[in-house]
């Protein structure tokens, strides 16, 4: 496992990390989650991603129990939470100073830690001035409750505004953004954020490297019953996979599968290596629900050299 700097900070984050979205509380209980997190940790993964919205906070409860059970020292891992969707009441959502403060305290309690390493604004909030959000994050940093703050799925303009306001008011600027990034979701990382990478050295903790499993090839012949597309409350993934817009993607996946066979690795490994090849990626978040999937995905780090310039060019042609 290699470690990359999170943006321009001194924090060394594993190139692969593990996230709990969909899986914790839906597919994994404390016992199963413990097995997978322990395996990740043994393989050198040091970042574990979470959010207040994941299973209405239960994902953080499970992760907190696992951390306690595994008895990791606090200086050996990185853990995150995200703030935006905390509940149905007006004061339980958005990026107001109050909700950010409450969400942080709740996350600390559920995760059973004294501070969060990374704290993300899960989405932009049109009802709250960015200045208020920046001020709240700066306050939490001064209180020692978070180390770094960032954004998730914010536009380049919104992130730039956060940097500008931070400088003008003497507040701590954002450190990282968490965008979706895979072969079918490229625009933000490869185009929109380019100036932020160049001028601000923005870090990234990207999610969905396998496009919710599409880039494993397992959906090439229909919808398996034991995947996230069959889970309650995640029907939107299934509907998206069955939409007309995805028909072309299935054909592309079949061609990518053939290419991965030529290269000598699985499509999943090829897809993860493709993400890691981008120098602006700090870490790629995996979301496996089975140990066999984790073994497959983590092994990708042993095959990065197979993604040569020639292979990269062939992938670009297939994605064009």
Describe the structure.
The protein has helices at residues 30-42, 58-70, 97-111, 130-142, 156-169, 187-192, 194-200, 235-241, 247-263, 267-276, 291-298, 309-319, and strands at residues 3-5, 12-14, 16-19, 47-49, 78-83, 116-121, 146-151, 176-177, 203-206, 283-286. The two termini are 31 Å apart. The longest helix has 17 residues, at 247-263. It has a single domain (3-211, 278-304), classed as TIM Barrel, CATH 3.20.20. Helix 2 packs across helix 3. With 320 residues, the chain is of the alpha/beta class. 42% of the residues lie in helices and 13% in strands.
Q: Please count the helical segments.
A: 12
Instruction: Indicate the multimeric state.
Output: single chain
Helix coverage percent? 40-55%
- What is the average per-residue confidence, as pLDDT, rounded to a whole number? 95
* CATH architecture descriptor: Alpha-Beta Barrel
Q: Which outline best applies? A: globular
Total E-strand runs: 10
How many structural domains?
A: 1
CATH superfamily: NADP-dependent oxidoreductase domain
The span between the termini is 31 Å
Strand content: 5-15%
What is the CATH top level name?
Alpha Beta
CATH topology: TIM Barrel
| Largest sheet properties | 8 strands, parallel, barrel
Structural class: alpha/beta
The strand order across the widest sheet is 3-4-5-6-7-8-9-10
Radius of gyration: 19 Å
